[in-house]
Amino acid sequence: MRRALQDRFECQEVASREEAVDLVRDIGSIDVAIIDMRRHPDRVTPSPLGATETIRMMLKSEPGLGIVAHGERAERHLASAALQAGANAYISRTASTELLVHAAQAALAQERFVDPAVPPRGSRGKLTKRQREILQLLANGESTTVAARELDLSEETIKTHTKNALARLGARNRTHAVAIALRESLIE
């Protein structure tokens, strides 16, 4: 990423989201920030600060800051979450260098840019919203019964959604589905 941007931008790197927020708050003359949207981008010391929360905190400190959300995949829900938090642009790790530069330039100009590989609104992603909700509850340790009660659905409906999610993810069982969904940032 640094190589792609260093010809057009002066680049600074920080080790954590907390350091990024502090840098924006303390320096204040940063034009564009690129935020890693992965749940734990630093595997050594996981950050308690989420990506969307980081975006909001940075914009609170520096309202004119351009923000590029850098996601693991070209998924509509990831792009939507980042843009709703206040990011100007969303780009996936699979995007070309040219698209990364374009996203940074759009953020600098306070323009919106979404990776063209992100499916358009209304298209079906890898999982439906309901399937993600159910997998999130399962990831939180809830049972099918609790998920049914919380979502005001029957247990049979929960089981059907779970079965369909397993098929879409190519998972062997519920635990495997949750692991895939976490790894692919489909749930938190």
Please outline what is shown here.
This protein is α/β, with parallel strands linked by helices and 188 residues long. It has 9 helices and 4 strands.
Overall description:
There is one protein chain. This protein has 188 residues and is of the alpha/beta class. It contains nine helices and four strands. Strands 1-2-3-4 form a four-stranded parallel β-sheet, with helices on both faces. Strand 1, helix 3 and strand 2 form a beta-alpha-beta unit. 33% of the residues are buried.
Strand content: 5-15%
Total number of strands: 4
Low-confidence stretches: none
Q: How do the strands of the widest beta sheet line up side by side?
A: 1-2-3-4
Largest sheet: 4 strands, parallel
Using the CA coordinates, give the radius of gyration.
Answer: 18 Å
Q: What is the helical fraction, as a range of percent?
A: 40-55%
How do the helices and strands follow one another from N- to C-terminus? HHEHEHEHEHHHH
Structural class of the helix and strand makeup?
Answer: alpha/beta
Give the helix tally. Answer: 9
N- to C-terminal separation?
25 Å
Characterize the quaternary organization of these chains. Answer: single chain
Mean pLDDT: 88
Q: How would you describe the shape? A: elongated
